[in-house]
Amino acid sequence: MSRRILLDKGYLSRIETSPKVAPEWIIDKYEGELGVDISRRTLLGGLAAGAVVPSAVTDAVRRMFEEETTPIGLDSWVERMERHATDALTVGAAEMQTRIAADLINIRPQLANPQMWAIASRLMVLHGAPLADVADATATARWYQAAVDAADRSDDTTTQVWVRGRSALSMAHPSTALSTCQQLAAEAAKMSETATVGRLMALVSLANAYALNSNAPAARASMDQARRVFDAVGTTSEASDYTMPEWRMHVDTSLVLARLGDHHADHVQQEALRTMPAKFARFATHLEIHRGLAFTKSGDRVEGIAHARKALAQLPADRHSVALRRLYNEVLTATPATQ
């Protein structure tokens, strides 16, 4: 970059690593060279578009060596795991990675029985893949495959299905390993026909994969199955990554329909906003980016990108997530849907 824009490398390095927002004229130059739009509100700690700060994980590792830690019992681990699953819906990705990385380091020496492997595998999924770039498909697939391997050591079918289904949902984007997404989702759907949240997530993941591959009939069929499972396991009150509240089902449905260019997406988005508690502002941003994607899929690329950019800019940077950045990038590259 120093050679391209004719500025001193040390000067650029200080800007990239500074906690301050980078000067607008520098951002403009980076945007011109990278060919992407860099949201001003995400430039609190670096210029990499969509980067998830890996130092969060590094800091967690360091603290584990600086502080005294003592093993905790199974019940306490379950309590911590459930708390992380709840917080993951409202807390930003970088903070959650820092918290969970510390627990993953702490739990590793205690993996002496299947129950602890079940907890570790779920924590790995909640942590999410440590990435320098949200488009790093290889790193994403490798992380979630490791979580699946850990789940298989739990000898617990419910855990194995949930880890596969939730991992697949995290990879249901065009910039990730979509083939791995389909593989894990299909495995989860076949492992057990019992109605569980894990099976529901697997079916939604398959629907997204089909939509991204322009296979509308298969996408709709998979969502029909998902709705039947939701009728059995859905909830109107609880909200964590281990449950499927009504509003979140609407959010997931909205994305599938937006990817298909289906005009019914707007009605589903309205239902999601109507049923969603105000504290889940990040998911409201998801819906607005879905709208942007729908505009793009209908042929209005300029309006779609502008809508998605505005939605992401209005959410505080510390509430951003990998999924949001991937969705935003999807809007930037989407093409009109074929009916």
Can you put this structure into words, describing what you see?
67% of the residues lie in helices and 0% in strands. With 339 residues, it is mainly α. α10 runs antiparallel to α11 (197-212) and α16 (301-314) runs antiparallel to α17. It is built from 17 helices and no strands.
List its salient traits.
339 residues; mainly alpha; 17 helices
Strand content: under 5%
* Alpha carbon gyration radius: 20 Å
How would you sum up the global shape?
A: globular
Helix/strand order: HHHHHHHHHHHHHHHHH
The main sheet comes to:
none
Alpha-carbon distance between the two ends: 42 Å
- Detail the poorly predicted runs: 40-53
Pairing-aware structural class of the strands and helices?
A: mainly alpha
Helix content: 55-70%
Task: Chart the SSEs and their pairings.
Layout: H1 2-5, H2 9-17, H3 24-34, H4 55-66, H5 74-87, H6 93-107, H7 114-127, H8 137-152, H9 157-170, H10 178-191, H11 197-212, H12 216-233, H13 246-260, H14 265-275, H15 281-297, H16 301-314, H17 322-333
Overview in brief:
This protein is mostly helical and 339 residues long. The chain contains 17 helices and no strands. Helix 9 runs antiparallel to helix 10 and helix 13 packs antiparallel against helix 14.
